[in-house]
Structures are given as C-alpha cells and as structure tokens.
C-alpha cells in the first residue's frame, strides 16, 4: 500500500492515526493491517490501554510456542538479542524464517509494537531486581553524567531494564517535593505544558497556509491532543522540584478540572443521573476485572470527560457505598452497586 492509503485504512482501527509518524505507519501497514481486518470479521475491536490477565497469558503462550518452534533456549535471548552477540545472527535468521511478528501477536487485537513492548517488560529478568542500593544510585548518577539519557547503554551497564533506570534517575536526580503542590510549582507545570503544546502544534502546522499565531494569546488546541503522550522528562526538568510521574498526575488532575468546569456534571440532579448511568454502563460490560473496562468509551458515554475523572468517581462510589469492598472482586462490587445502590439512587432521583 502507498502511505496515504495505508493511513486511511488504519484510521478505521486507530482513531489517533494522524499523530503517528510515516515510518510507523509503514510498519503497521505490514505488521498490523491484515490482523486488524481479521479481528474485524470476528467482531473484535482493536484495543489500547492496560493489558488484561488473559492477554498476558496469551503473550506467555505465544512466546513459549515460538521458543519450542525455533529451539531458541530462552525468552531473554528471543526478546533481548543484543545481550547475546555470539547468537545474534542465528536468532535473527530464525525470527525471520518463522515469522516472529505474526506469531508473537497471535490472538491479541492490539498493534504489534505494543505487544512486543509488553512481552519485553514481562520477560526481562532485569525488571525484577528489587530496591536500588546506595552504590547503585551513585553508579546511576555517574553513568548519566557520562552518557546523558542513553538509557539503553546505562541499563546494560547496570543490568537493570531501560524503564527502571530512567525512572529511578528521575526520582534521585534532585530534591523532589512529595507534599502538596504550591502555586509556583503549578504555574511552572502549566507553563511547561503550554510551551510543549505550542511547539507541537506549530511543528504540525509548519506547512499550513494558516500557521499558529506567534502570540501570548490562548492556544486553540484539538481536544484529542490533550490526551496524547507528552515529553514528561522534559516537563519535569522545567518544573524542577517534581519527578515526571508527579507532573503527569498533576496535569491530568488540572485537565480533568478544566474540562469538567461549568458542566456541573456531578452535582444535584445531574450528579444522580451520572452515578446511575455509570453503574448501569459498568454492569452492562460484564467485566470480571477493572482492566477489561474500556474507560475511554465509558467516559464519553456518561458525560464526555477524561477517563481518569470517571475512574475517580467510580472509586469514590465503591468506597462510600460497598461494605467491605476491599474483600470483594471487581464484578462483585459492580453487582452490589447494581442490585443495592442503583435502586436507592433511582428512588432519590
């Protein structure tokens, strides 16, 4: 397929396809498009977000079967081939001959790249090494000073995963504040996000006849962009006193507040209606665990708000309404809300 056709066909399965690079589109056209069409015939939608227990088990099964098929003696060799330079050529040949991409993603309605990253996280022995010692933290600081943010190289030197060393350095590189956010910190965060957003929008409109205004006026940004991944380590550096996960959580909180402001979604009669709708929708999903719920779809259905907002409202609802909720399974909590709390709310309404 040519690039435009591939992008157009993928758009049916991936709503945010316009934000994906050309090189990634080419790879997805080869690895994913046929799979996506097959899943569509079976009435199965392409999924994003957190992997379910069932999907994790399918990945384990796929990896095990591929190892048996090829004779490669460990998942680490298969998924982290660069760690075994003496076997590299043989492993690459076997992966090509036995269609590694297709086999590893069998039965899982997600983009191949996400399945591959999930498999690497699951099978990386360097992911499960416990707390960092004082000596390891010092080594991490030294290596980062030498190699910058080349986490692949640093992870090899420390025998820890890429993600682990990046996150740990983010936590230890400066005096991090764990208390409530100050007005000054919040302002720094807002300014950092705005700067990143402005740069993103300007780069995407570089060839447009109507470029973004170079002024201090408020940016009009496609709402979908607010949900896209932001360069959190860069934002963390600009804020200075918080590490990236704190910045991300705070931004989601601000975003939720801003988008919900004025809607009065969870107050008075509207609040009752929203709770009733939430319980009914959750009950209709028949989900056995929270990870099986499509929270994005749910959030659009009950009030066009961010998923984190709906998840927070559900949490408050179960804590305040379900006795001994910690001892109940997710499906038991939903059943209780549907059978006991829903009639009470409908009567009140």
Report what the structure shows.
This protein is an all-alpha fold. It has 4 domains: 3-123, no CATH class; 134-173; 183-207 and 217-260, no CATH class; 268-348, no CATH class. Helix content is 62%, strand content 0%. The radius of gyration is 23 Å and the shape is globular. Residues 208-220 have low confidence and may be disordered. One of its GO terms (molecular function) is chromatin binding. Residues 124-161 form the HTH myb-type domain. InterPro entries: Homeodomain-like_sf, Myb_dom, SANT/Myb, TTF1-like. One of its GO terms (cellular component) is nucleolus. Residues 124-172, 173-255 form the Myb-like domain.
For the biggest sheet, the summary is: none
Portion in beta strands: under 5%
Q: What shape does the CA trace take?
A: globular
Helical element count?
18
How many domains, in number, for the residues? 4
User: Strand pairing plus helix content: what structural class?
Assistant: mainly alpha
Total count of strands: 0
The run of helices and strands is HHHHHHHHHHHHHHHHHH
> Share of helix among residues?
55-70%
- pLDDT averaged residue by residue: 80
User: How widely separated are the two ends?
Assistant: 55 Å
Which stretches are poorly predicted, pLDDT < 50 over at least 5 residues? 208-220
How much is the radius of gyration in Å? 23 Å
Short précis:
The protein has helices at 3-11, 22-31, 33-41, 53-70, 75-79, 88-97, 100-104, 112-123, 134-147, 151-158, 162-172, 183-204, 232-239, 244-260, 268-285, 295-302, 307-321, 330-348. It is mainly alpha-helical. Residues 124-161 form the HTH myb-type domain.
